[in-house]
Design brief:
This protein has three helices and no strands. The protein is mainly alpha-helical.
Amino acid sequence: MNRICVHWSTRFRTHHGKRHLGMSRRSTTGISPARALDVAGRATAAVFGGYALAALVAAACARWLPMARVEAVVAGMLVSFAVYAAVAIFAFASRSAARAWIGLAAIGVPLAVALAASLHGAAA
């Protein structure tokens, strides 16, 4: 007979009378390979993509901020910590790992091209 436990003293008992710790029954098969691959892609985007984008932003700030070089480098490094955290949040908030990588590329590639052009004298 299935009945819902309503009294606090019976919350550790199932309808079969066996004791458990109030945890629901879940499948023990684990996660699917597709889901594991998606999480691995997001984690890779967060760690490596975040590092790459934070490094690009730090270099761009050091190069383009109109202040003393030492202050620009320090400001760029401070901004890079916020960028790294934002990329990690973005990687897991996006709909898929592919969208996370596309978003990182959409920001990182133009920034890298502009920084490279700036370092080689093609742009001011």
